[in-house]
């Protein structure tokens, strides 16, 4: 799973603040450089003990509607997809993210502000090689209305088919061979969206409290209310961004051809769990066992050195 590329972190601290999209809470993020091999870790500084939630498929929570979430014990972090998409695009493997609420800030509803802030902090290459997940066979997950197919490939590409009962969205498929430049130009600026008829329903069930007409496209047949689209098919591009961010919950970049049809966060999570079970569980177990053995040997060596020193002192 190692690649020829080196792991990366940020050079300096980066901060983000704003309203959370679903809860409406005011939230602040403080992003800090982290050592190689530590991965992406959220730290809930508003909870006693400052519990940490690593980005790992085993911590994916499926209890939240219309957003992705990670939960470890009592600590949960919601609406991670836009931020994780920015980390993927910038090739950031290791970062500590301190957060003082349960949900990340919406910013402008896209990944662009996160990318800009992280780039301003600087990107630092590290010594260890990146780990990459390369699939060895075709994987398929299917939901009530959608599906995702993942196939072996020599690079990462995503195609997405959207199908909405609105003239302004309609049915369309787009495909991108994604890298940092393509993502920044074609995907990162695309904002989150909902249909006009969904907006009041979401508010009634306690969602969308931080949404406004700048960070959310409220779509009817004629287009978004109170704003203009950044792309003619901005909702489709946003769906690709969500998928990229969700896939980075694997904790490593994926090298594969991904073909999604009307997928959402729940189906994305099902795919991640399948890939995790097929490729990563045994690797993690071996790493933990190796780490445990290394720790044991270090303890034995420390005891040996202490005994040796005692013998020398006694002479």
Task: Explain this structure.
With 315 residues, the chain is α+β, with helices and mostly antiparallel strands. It is 32% helix and 31% strand. A hairpin with a 7-residue loop joins strand 14 (157-163) and strand 15. It is globular and about 80 Å long. The termini are far apart. 37% of the residues are buried.
Task: Give a brief description.
The chain is of the alpha+beta class.
CATH superfamily: lpxc deacetylase, domain 1
The major beta sheet can be summarized as:
5 strands, mixed
How do the strands of the widest beta sheet line up side by side? 2-3-9-4-5
The top-level CATH class is: Alpha Beta
The count of domains is: 1
What is the ordering of alpha helices and beta strands? EEEEEEEEHEHEEEEEEHEHEEHEEH
Do you know the CATH architecture?
Answer: 2-Layer Sandwich
Tally of separate helices: 6
Q: Could you say which structural class the secondary elements and strand pairing correspond to?
A: alpha+beta
Average pLDDT taken over every residue:
91
Helix proportion range: 25-40%
Q: How far is the first residue's CA from the last residue's CA?
A: 51 Å
CATH domain fold name: Ribosomal Protein S5, domain 2
Total strands: 20
What low-confidence regions span 5 or more consecutive residues with pLDDT below 50? none
Q: Describe the global form.
A: globular
The Cα radius of gyration reads 22 Å
Strand content: 25-35%
């Amino acid at each position: 799973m190692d690649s020829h590329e080196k792991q990366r972190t940020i050079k300096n601290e980066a901060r983000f603040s704003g309203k959370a999209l679903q809860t409406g809470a005011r939230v602040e993020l403080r992003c800090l450089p982290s050592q190689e091999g530590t991965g992406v870790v959220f730290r809930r500084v508003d909870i006693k003990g400052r519990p940490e939630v690593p980005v790992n498929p085993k911590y994916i929570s499926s209890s939240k509607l219309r957003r992705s979430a990670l939960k470890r014990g009592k600590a949960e972090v919601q609406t991670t997809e836009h931020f994780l998409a920015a980390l993927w695009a910038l090739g950031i493997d290791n970062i500590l993210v301190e957060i003082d609420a349960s949900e990340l800030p919406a910013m402008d509803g896209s990944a662009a502000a996160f990318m800009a802030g992280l780039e301003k902090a600087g990107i630092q290459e590290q010594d260890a090689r990146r780990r990459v997940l390369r699939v060895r066979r075709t994987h398929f997950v299917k939901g009530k209305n959608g599906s995702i197919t993942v196939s072996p490939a020599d690079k990462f590409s995503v195609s997405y088919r959207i199908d909405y009962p609105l003239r302004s969205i309609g049915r369309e498929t787009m495909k991108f061979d994604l890298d940092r430049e393509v993502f920044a130009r074609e995907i990162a600026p695309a904002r989150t969206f909902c249909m006009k008829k969904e907006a009041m329903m979401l508010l009634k069930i306690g969602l969308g409290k931080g949404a406004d007409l700048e960070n959310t496209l409220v779509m009817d047949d004629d287009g978004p209310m109170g704003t203009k689209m950044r792309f003619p098919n901005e909702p489709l591009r946003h769906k690709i961004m969500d998928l990229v961010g969700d896939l980075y919950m694997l904790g490593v970049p994926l090298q594969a051809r991904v073909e999604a049809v009307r997928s959402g966060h729940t189906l994305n999570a099902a795919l991640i769990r399948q890939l995790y079970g097929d490729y990563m569980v045994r690797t993690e177990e071996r790493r933990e066992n190796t780490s445990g053995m290394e720790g044991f040997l270090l303890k034995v060596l420390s005891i040996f050195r202490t005994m040796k020193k005692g013998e020398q002192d006694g002479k």
